[in-house]
Amino acid sequence: MNLTSKSIGIVLSGGGSKGIAHAGALQYLTEQGIEPSCIAGTSAGSIVGGLYAFGKTPKEILEFFKSIYFFHWKHFTFKKAGIVDSESFKNYFVDVFGETTIGELKIPMYITATDLVKGELTIFNSDTKVADAILASSSFPGVISPYEINNCLFSDGGILNHFPTDVLQGKCDFLLGVYVSPIQNIENKDLKSIKSVTSRAFDLLSANNSYQKFNLCDLVIEPKELANYSTFETSKTKMDLIFKIGYHEAKKSFENLAT
Fold first, then answer.
1. How far apart are CA 35 and CA 26, in angstroms?
2. Cα–chain center distance at 123
């Protein structure tokens, strides 16, 4: 199928560190000359999508993930509703995006987050700073504290919409989804901490809702192998492997589409 003449929308799910597979998939698409006309992303998908829409290459996105030591002591908080302070990551994103707003990105980008007080999904408007929108979208509940924008408290977009395919409906000719949150393979011994139980519960809830949205896409890239990786991988070697998994799964999906 020739996609170069079609407008292509790309949906990037949440998934923590497994979101690096999004960058791997984008690397393959770039090599095939496939450029999205719009992107929707939540949580890790908002990070990858935002960086890509800003002009970063997939390999530069991989290096960005490697540059953040998530569980560094300076990120921990005892004063906010989370183990990690969302504000402590702000400099990483401001260093890249500066004051850039969503409307100034090179590719139209839709970033979602959950308004915790209203209990509603928010799709940030074009005037919102990219760094703020991403931090709000990525504030994983129970682990990262809610992020405040204009006196509103936001948490992970995946709470209400982990795979925002519906956001791009009617905005493109071909809808491509990249879903990087297959249910992780675990055992009883893996559920010994607050973080592990919270992460597991969130994965189960989001998967149940997300799989129902697959039929809204013309093609879904879903690297099943990511079930062997955790939501919060910190090993740079594993990050490289996750990138490669995303790349090869995208390649396989497109080869199957052509047959």
1. 9
2. 14
Q: Please give the single-letter amino acid code of residue 96.
A: V
Q: CA–CA distance from 145 to each of 96, 116, 126 (Å)? A: 22, 12, 24
User: DSSP letters along 85-140, please?
Assistant: -GGGGHHHHHHHHTT-BGGGSSS-EEEEEEETTTTEEEE--TTSBHHHHHHHHT--
Per-residue pLDDT tens over the stretch 159-213: 899 999 999 999 999 999 999 988 777 789 888 888 788 777 877 877 777 888 8
Q: Rounded to whole angstroms, how far apart are CA atoms 24 and 30?
A: 10
Torsion of CA 144, 93, 156, 26, to 10 degrees: -130
DSSP state, residue 176: E
> How big is the CA angle at 77 (ends 72 and 82), to the nearest 5 degrees?
105
Using CB atoms within 10 Å of the CB of residue 214, give its burial: 0 to 12 exposed, 13 to 18 middle, 19+ buried. Answer: middle
**What is residue 20's DSSP assignment?**
H
Tokens (6 digits) for 156: 């992970």
